[in-house]
Amino acid sequence: MANPALACVDPFLAEDGIEAVRRTLREPVFWQLRLGQWVTGAGAWLPWGVWADCADPSRVVPDQERIVLAFDGSASGDSTALVGCTVENPHLFVVGLWENPGDPRWRVPRGEVDHAVALAFDRWDVAELACDPWGWLSEIEQWARRHGESRVLEWNTANAQRMAPATDRLYQAVAAGTVTHDGDHQFAAHIAHCVAKRTPLGDLVSKDKRGSPRKIDLAVAAIVALDRAAYWAEQSVPQMFVFDM
User: Fold this and answer.
1) 98 vs 26, 32, 217, CA distance in Å?
2) How many other C-beta atoms can be found within 10 angstroms of the C-beta atom of residue 183?
């Protein structure tokens, strides 16, 4: 009823095509762009309920499984997050979260963060640690020296050319149910706090307003973690060669 191209005598849009688009677009965007209907809550990044549908708290990532780590750091006001993602059958899980309890004098316990990173490298086969470098360059340099420069990557989350496709990757994976997560309640809260920021390069996630206490750092780290896990999964696929006879 909302889209005449589906209901006319000679429709030029296919229902299965529209259905495919409905699964992969954010719901408010689908209503606006495909149905011409304006809705409230258009800023929410993920449709309601889809993140919960991907929860698999029974899955425990065993020691020495190949994973990637993603780190989104802060000095004080925002939270600092460390998220892991398995390379095979992607599963996102919280490794560490350090949040300001509301104390204006609070600072991220950098020693605790460093210890958590060291424990993660000891416990799992970490293919890569991708880090947002803002405010943590000295620690990132230490991690690179300790764990190998090839395994520690600077990943600027403010770079839209990188973040937009990575954000879309996580959205698509959650919408299609091809990724799971540990069901952590703080993880769910950070995901729920994300507002979609539309750019020419695609959607990015942001807070609802500047200085908002509704943190999203676990969500940002999850976006990076899944993107880098996908990269490493591609590297592990055997290459096929065709020889001319």
Assistant:
1) 30, 38, 10
2) 17
Write out pLDDT tens, residues 152-189.
999 999 999 999 999 999 999 999 999 999 999 999 99
* Six token digits for residue 115: 């210890």
Question: Residue 237 corresponds to which amino acid?
Answer: V
What is the residue whose two structure tokens read 């952590």?
184
Residue pair 68/130 in contact by the 8 Å Cβ criterion: yes
Q: What's the rounded Cα separation, in Å, for the pair 203 and 214?
A: 19
